[in-house]
Amino acid sequence: MSRARSSARTQAAAAAACQSGDVAFRPWAGTLLVMRRPQLRSTFARAVVPVLVGIGFFVVVGLLLWGVAALTSRNRDDTTANLAPAFQEMGNAQWVADHIVDGGPIILQDLIGSDRNIVLDHTAASGFQIYLAHPADRDATCQIEQVRRTRQFTDCDGRTLAPEDLALPPVGVRPIINNDGSLTLDLTADTPAAGAATPPPAGTSGG
């Protein structure tokens, strides 16, 4: 009976400690140890600490959102690079050449990435030639428009341009005439090695 009463008193003391904000626990059997929970006593602390906790929460959320945005942006760039084709098959080279004679150079949309369009031209003297679809003295923001069924273009300044006035593509981007007579555009720019000799002009091919 005495042991039961002692146990009841212990449980009552633990309940009272919990209700008053204290923490009660038993480190070993038969002993009750009560630890008082820390409390903010000053008015200043009670006012400032919740604000600091809230600011810390929003800082953590902001960092998480920034990390997600950075990862998404990097993945988007990688995806764009992966989607850009290394080669573009154009079909029979003679058919393409005849089409250019009849309708003028061909503008191909965004084949080398970074929203850079290219122009495929052909002349009897020079064969196939690739240009970038902007003037040689402007950047890619100065878009060109072809004068319908001619070899002329107008640029962002209203100037009339010939294909030779357009910018050349990166070294390594060139047309290739295959053994079967088909035309392939190699859209992979070369990576020059240190000390390498200057390569020939880009974008040209016979035929």
Describe the structure.
The radius of gyration is 37 Å and the shape is elongated. About 2% of the residues have low confidence. It is built from 3 helices and 12 strands. The protein is an alpha+beta fold and 207 residues long. It has a 4-stranded antiparallel beta sheet with strand order 4-5-6-12. It has a 3-stranded antiparallel beta sheet with strand order 3-11-10. Strands 7-8-9 form a 3-stranded antiparallel beta sheet, with no helix packed on it. It has 2 domains: 35 residues, no CATH class; 119 residues, 3-layer Sandwich (Rieske Iron-sulfur Protein), CATH 2.102.10. Helix content is 34%, strand content 22%. Strand 1 and strand 2 form a beta hairpin.
Helix content: 25-40%
Query: How does the major sheet shape up?
Result: 4 strands, antiparallel
**What is the structural class?**
alpha+beta
Biggest sheet, strands in spatial order? Answer: 4-5-6-12
What's the CATH class label of the largest domain? Mainly Beta
The CATH architecture of the largest domain can be given as 3-layer Sandwich
What share of the residues does DSSP label as strand, in percent? 15-25%
Q: Could you report the average pLDDT, rounded to the nearest whole number? A: 77
Low-confidence stretches: 77-81
| Count of DSSP-assigned helices | 3
Task: Tell me the count of domains.
Answer: 2
Distance between the termini: 112 Å
Number of strands: 12
Q: How much is the radius of gyration in Å?
A: 37 Å
